Amino acid sequence: MKTKAISSIFVLFAIAVGMASMAPTAFADHAEVAIVTVDESGFSQACVDDGCYVPLTATVDVGGVVTMTNTDPTGVHTFTSGTVNGFTPSPDGIFDTSVLMSGDSFEWVPESAGEVPYYCMLHTWMIGTIIVQEAAAEEHADDHGDDHAAEDVELMVMISDSQVMGGTQIELEFNVLHLNYDLTATQNGEIVFEEKGLHSMELIATHQIDALGSDENPIDVEVVSLGIGAPGDEDSWTGPVGQVTTAKVVPEFGTIAMMVLAVAIISIVAVTAKSRVVPRF
Ligand SMILES: [Cu+2]
Q1: Does the fold of domain 154-258 match that of domain 26-139?
Q2: Superfamily of chain region 26-139
Q3: Where is 186: in which H helix or E strand?
Q4: CATH of 154-258, one of 2.60.40.10, 2.30.38.10, 3.30.450.20, 3.40.50.10990
């Protein structure tokens, strides 16, 4: 697998799906989603905190339709998939609206599940995320015989890594706040990192591992969800429990950067019957 040294490209994500009974129209809601730009987002970065795209994180099913519209009367914008590192964009080619004049729209139909970050190539402070989920989640719910209609609770964890001073820094990016999880990393069958009951108040958590992965000796990273909620208050935790995400970490050395990214591999899943949607604290 080729990795670009300079920019933070990741790969990987994974996971999926627990369910619960809630709003019946939940799935219909993900068949299509509309994303718009915030007025004057091209002139100032004032929109950054709340999001220069609305919604900032949009969820859609695989095969659904994402309609991206530039509703900002004061400027032109793009929706370009990829990431921005500082002010340096790295388009990943998944989609690109190219320049949208005010009022113009673009439709994109995602073909695979995952988390797709995007930005505006003209104003790199404008960034957003589209979470593409398996429409199959729906059928799963039915399998549980939950006839009051189901709604997904999906947990996504994106794992990326970089080499930092002789070790590996693992960055976990979650789509929910307050995830409690176990993190284990193994290399050659030996545990090189293991911590149980971790809690992430933020969407991003980083962990330093004192080992380097290589093609021959990749590091396997495993994240197991324990539930979502305040640390120490297990009884009130919701969300997928026991979901596992793994990533095989095989850094490649770049010619320039000390930061090399690697990554990948997906996997997977498990389902729990009891969970609630979008926890709030
Ligand atoms: Cu823009």
Answers
A1: yes
A2: Cupredoxins -  blue copper proteins (2.60.40.420)
A3: strand 179-187
A4: 2.60.40.10
Ligand 1 centre to CA of 108 (Å) is 18
> How would residue 263 be classed by pLDDT, with cut points 50, 70 and 90?
very low
pTM, full prediction: 0.43
Is residue 103 left, alpha or beta, with left meaning phi > 0 and alpha meaning psi from -120 to 50?
left
Q: How far is the CA of 40 from the centre of ligand 1 (A)?
A: 9
Burial class for 99, CB neighbours closer than 10 Å (0-12, 13-18, 19+): middle
How much is the average pLDDT of 68-93? 93
The answer to whether residue 148 scores a pLDDT higher than 70 is no
pLDDT bucket at 247, cuts 50 / 70 / 90: low
Give the distance (Å) from ligand 1 centre to CA of residue 262.
30
